[in-house]
Amino acid sequence: MMEMEKEMKTEMRGELEMEKPNETKTEIEGGLEMKIENETKTEIEGGLEMKMENEMKTEIEGRLEMKMENKMKTEIEGGLEMKMENEMQTDIEEGLVMGIETKIRMGGGLEMEMENEMTMEMEKEMKMRMEKEMKMDMEKEMKMRMEKGLELMGMGMEQLTEMRMSSSRSSSSASFSVSSTRTRKTSQTKAVEEHSVVQRKTSAVVESFSQVQKSPHVPEGESVPDFEERPRPITAQEGDKVSFKVKVTGTPSPTVTWERASGKLLSEGIKTFYDSINKQHVLKIKSLAMDDADVYKCIASNEHGHSIYSISLIVTDNPAMDFKKMLKKRSVPVGRRGGRKPPTEEEMLKILSGAEKKDYERICAEHGFTDFRGILKKLKEMKKKVEVEMVRVLKPLEDITAKVDSNVVFETILELKDPNTNMRWLLGTELLRIQYSLGKYEVKQLGTKHTLCISRVGLDDMGTYTLQVGDTTLSARLTVVDEPLGFLSELKPMRVTERQTAVFEVRLSKRTDVPLIWKVKGKEVKRDEKFDVSVSDDGLTYTLKIKDVRASDTGEYTMNIGDLTTSAPLFIERLPIKFSSPLKNMRVKEKSKARLECEIGTKDVHVRWLKDGRDITNDPRYIFMREGKRAEVIVEDCDVADAGEYAVVCTQDNDEHEYISSANLTVDERFATVKSDMSDAQCPTGSPAELCVVLNDEKVDGVWLKDGVEVSELSGVQVVKQGAVHKLLFTSVTDAHQGKYTFRAKGAESEAVLTIADPPEIDPALLELLGAQPVTVKAGQTATIKIPFKGRPLPKVTWYKDGLEMLDDERTKVERTSDSTTLVLSRCEREDSGAIMVRLKSDCGTAIANLHLNVLDRPKPPQGKVEFPERTGRCITMKWKAPKDNGGQQISSFVVERRPAGKKSWVRVGEVESSTTTFSDVKVEEGKAYQYRIRAANSQGLSDALETDDVYAGEPIEPPGMASQPQVCDVTKEAVTVSWSPPGQDGGAAVLGYVLERRKKGSNMWVPVNTEPLTDTKCVVDGLVEDMEYEFRVTSINRAGAGSPSTASNFVLAKDPIRAPGLVRDLAVSDSSNSSISLSWKPPELGDQPSGYILEVRPDDAKEWTKNTKIPIAGTAYTVTGLQERMKYFFRIRAVNEGGVGEPRELEEGVLAMPPPAPPRFDLQGKVKNQIVVRAGSALCIQLSFTGSPPPVVSWLRDGIPTQGRETITKGKTHSQFLISSSQRSDAGVYRAHLKNDYGEAHYDISVRVTDFPRPPRNLRLVEEVPGTVTLQWDHTPDLGDDEGGHYVILKRDASTSSWFTTAECVYSNKYTVTGLLPGRKYYFRVMARNSIGDSDPLDSRESLIIAKEKEPISSLLKKEYTRTERQVKPAFILPLKDHAVRRGNDCTMSCAFLGMPIPLASWYKGEVQISDKPRFWQSTADGVCTLTIPSCVARDSGDYTLLLESPLGQARCSCNLLIFDKDDKSLLDNLTDRTAKEKLIM
């Protein structure tokens, strides 16, 4: 009997294991929730009740009679392998819990019957009992599901939830069972169904953020509240502990409150507090209840606004909690358990003391112990008696070896019973003074993790560090190693695109004070606008940035630091050249002008021109123009030979490609007659010559012939055409050029003869010698100059001195021979010095020789009138000027002599050096008059004397000073009016009058105007010659004599006056930039024609006007350059001519030196992608170019928050760069570059994903649910969510071997069932995460799992053999496919239920393409359920999906639509929310 009881229990457990994986209950429930509508509710109620009543009875009898044969076991294994997905765990556990309750009751009934009697009546009673109990339970559950289905029919699409549908059909008969997954949702919605309001809760995950700014202008330094650290939605089981943590920023400090979206108050079990250590606001729930499921709002507010962050809390049923409730309901009388009694309380305590807490309920149920609450109290009392451990060390301190200047972190993990336990850090025996270390030491705590951070360690920091926590002491040693300076990373060759920024980076092994030098091409690099040299915060990484890289920046870059050197080249990739306007075909007539032009996309290019494939760039036949981006070739006087294909070839430095644009030129012929014939010519050898003929049509070309042969074969000859004039030019005539020349054109012909005659020639060496060394003779000697020459016929010889021809006289003689000419100058004088030129001229040409003759003589007397700066009774100081002619040699000194007034003999009073032209005579008598004379001396003797007038020692009367410069007005062709001002000094006596003189332009003679001194300072001068220029000067006279003449007036033309111009018209700004402003205007309408314009400018911060040009501007437009950026300038302009200057015309408003205003705009040019994928550890560099005036302000944001941290942002007027030298996974997100100026805003988003080797999964759990199979379950790695190809790899290993074997690849869920295991063997299992980068570290099972051996079935209960009836059913869908809407990156599972016997073949299609055999999709078909799983959905997965079922009886087809959306696609979410429940979109 005991053996039968055990066999029956084993059979019941097997029944439960079959119910757990099939999932038919949950999937039918999901199908009912989606399918039950008004017209199907009645059918489902009636059909299911009848079907379950009839087929359940058959199934129970069949299963009991078949005694759990091998086929049932196979179905269990198949169900496990088909439906092992992420969401299966909850359904299996809940089905297990519900099955346990039923089976325990059934097991209790069976035990009771088998204990009393083993008769046929017992068997019948047992069957009836089980049938009745199962029927009642199923009816009850079906009613609950139908009510819930009706409730879900009113559900709106506001929060979409994913449902599954499935139906199961066994091999003998169809059976249906329904189980409920009771989960509480986080948001509520209302729907009206049949005029009744039903409130429901959905399981959609909610996460939203909103921010409202109250103040229109937030002061600088203050801000609206924001969330620096945001919580995440939580899904937890009933009874678990959960907490939401946020970190809030804002100025002033915001107030934080928590609310529930449903409006309910926070329950007593919910606590909110502020964690001052981590600076976080926390909402904590110790024990979750089902009513705690809701959307929780965290509200942060201050005077500038408030921010709200909403997150969902989903509470699911805890199977242990449900089992506990069922234990309360059931009761098994002890008396009916026969001879086996349940264990006593003491025995149960011993059994539970070695078990885990989660298994308490199961163990109590197995042993039939019902006082579960009482035994739990006893266990708690036992544990209280155990001494509580105050400090538990989970991870001790570990020894560390670090380098000098590196950062060190000591880390330990502790569990403290008392969080206020005192903790101290020591170095050796000395307590670390953390607060006064100036950042050297920093102590951190994150949960149970305690760390000591030491920054920039040195040799002094080496020692043993101790952490004292209460009575517990933990120690570890720090060893500091000072390594020699070296490179951790050297320079690497770099290739960048033109106009981009190149970055060279070197990392040292340690910090150093040795100066670092960057060099390029051997020259040291200094930091400026081109080069940016920077050092990282840790002092180890040195960076050189070359901005706006051009072709000239390429070369070898070297970094020197001490004795270390590293170098790398920089290469450039040039941008391709584009033609904004290519060459165009052209047709012209012969002798016309042809112009072929194009416009190139850039200026910095090299241009070559080709004609029919021949390079004509240097051909003088063509005129090439290049202005900015435009290039053109001009063909003057086209002939038929000029027709052909012309091409422009553009190249650029460091670019091997050639960029070509071509066009065809067509030339039509012309005809003409001779208008003027050629004349015979005679030319010297080597000289140029010219033959000329004139036609009546300048557009007609001709050909030149020499003795009947075309001159194109003759060297040194050039054919020139000037309009209708045709010339044959000889650059250097030789004997080969003599002959008869003929010019032939279309309809015209002319002839002439060319003969040769040599022009005179002088030896170039002689000319060079004469030009380098002058001919020097002394005064009185004879100078003989001989010049040899060559020439035929004999040339005419002419000698010139200072431009005047020299003729024969008593001192001058010119001699001539056939090959030379000689100039003889007798008795040379100083005046003979000068430029000598000999000119040889014949009919064939002219030759000239220049030389300089220097005659040495005494110097000329000192210049001018002697001045007396000082005349006192003790000293007379005199001043003079050096002589005009020093006699050909340096003056050695000046000799000064004097004599008293009236005396004849001179006395030498002194001698001064040649550099001094002043002398002071101190040996004078006061009031006595003296006369002085001064002579210059050189090696040839003394000059003539410069004598002075009588000078008084004291206060003499001197001639008056200089009058002012005369001013001329009232000019006519016959007379002018001259005026002046009296002299500033009258010399000690009144001015008696003035002498006015005039002089013609080009003349040296001044002519007095008046014979008697003028007493007035104004005089009318007449008798002038018209159109003659005059200048005037005035001399003042007093009784001491005449003073010095005034400065001559400006030349004035004797001509009737010209009117000054009027006001300039239409002065306006035509263009502007940061450093220039372009102006334009129109000439004045009044006055005479202006000869120019005077433009004046005044900055905004200045009051004075300044002229912009030294000479007047000739045109009517001008660009003012060299201006300060964004400075306001004012302009005015006046017209000017000989008649004077007109009135100024001023701009009404100032003009800013800046380009015309323009809103910011990104200049992408296909260089920047909106999605970037980088590997962790590599550099993340985003470069953007833009335009805008004024230059926009650039700001960078990541996920809507301004970036701040490890990035380096480079900003310029037209570009910006965002650089993270070593990226991390946390750097992933959406980066936004935002531009803003006074005229608009613009932004550009770049999605950045950082990939790396995935982190390993965690918490591997093994369950042997079905004999011969093991279900693995683990926690997801956080790194596969954003990787499209991320999946898991499952491996197994027999304990008897060390080799691992791959069990499954491309597993996308966190659960997998391993089959094909041998009973009685030990196995180890391993799970690895894999993505496009590689594999993670393996997660191995800690202990081996022994596969249980199969048990023999109970044959004694087999009363009759069950015969299975085969039925044939045409394929048909019970529950069809439904449309799905899935967020990008999530998995999508679409299922449907079908009927068909034999089992039909299932084929999946996307559109018209079959996808059943593609590894991208995972599909399964079992127990009447077809499932298709699409892991990590992407945008291309959107579309129509079709399932085709085919069997010999027919086929069935079912379709659905899949829509993939992004998280920011709010319009799609709103559209889905507004749809009716009939659309049944599953998110």
Question: What would you note in describing this structure?
Answer:
Helix content is 13%, strand content 43%. The longest helix is centred in the N-terminal third of the chain and has 34 residues, at 120-153. A hairpin with a 2-residue loop joins strand 62 (929-938) and strand 63 (941-942). It has 1483 residues and is mostly beta strands.
Q: What global shape is seen? A: elongated
Number of strands: 108
Helicity range of the residues? 10-25%
**Total helix count?**
12
Layout: helices, strands, pairs:
Blueprint: H1 2-22, H2 24-35, H3 38-66, H4 70-82, H5 88-116, H6 120-153, E1 183-184, E2 187-193, E3 196-202, E4 207-213, E5 223-229, E6 234-237, E7 242-251, E8 255-260, E9 270-275, E10 280-285, E11 294-302, E12 305-316, H7 319-329, H8 345-353, H9 360-366, H10 372-384, E13 391-395, E14 400-403, E15 408-416, E16 423-427, E17 430-431, E18 441-446, E19 449-454, E20 463-469, E21 472-481, E22 487-489, E23 494-497, E24 502-508, E25 516-520, E26 523-524, E27 531-535, E28 541-546, E29 555-561, E30 564-573, E31 579-581, E32 586-589, E33 594-600, E34 606-611, E35 614-615, E36 622-627, E37 630-635, E38 644-652, E39 655-668, E40 674-676, E41 681-683, E42 689-695, E43 702-706, E44 709-710, E45 717-722, E46 725-730, E47 739-745, E48 748-756, H11 764-772, E49 775-778, E50 783-788, E51 796-801, E52 804-805, E53 812-816, E54 820-825, E55 834-842, E56 845-856, E57 863-871, E58 876-881, E59 893-900, E60 907-913, E61 918-921, E62 929-938, E63 941-942, E64 946-947, E65 951-952, E66 967-969, E67 976-979, E68 993-1000, E69 1007-1008, ...
Parallel strand pairs: 6-12, 14-21, 23-30, 32-39, 41-48, 49-56, 84-91, 101-108
Antiparallel strand pairs: 1-12, 2-3, 4-12, 5-7, 7-10, 8-11, 9-10, 11-12, 13-15, 15-19, 16-17, 16-20, 18-19, 20-21, 22-24, 24-28, 25-26, 25-29, 27-28, 29-30, 31-33, 33-37, 34-35, 34-38, 36-37, 38-39, 40-42, 42-46, 43-44, 43-47, 45-46, 47-48, 50-54, 51-52, 51-55, 53-54, 55-56, 57-58, 58-61, 59-60, ...
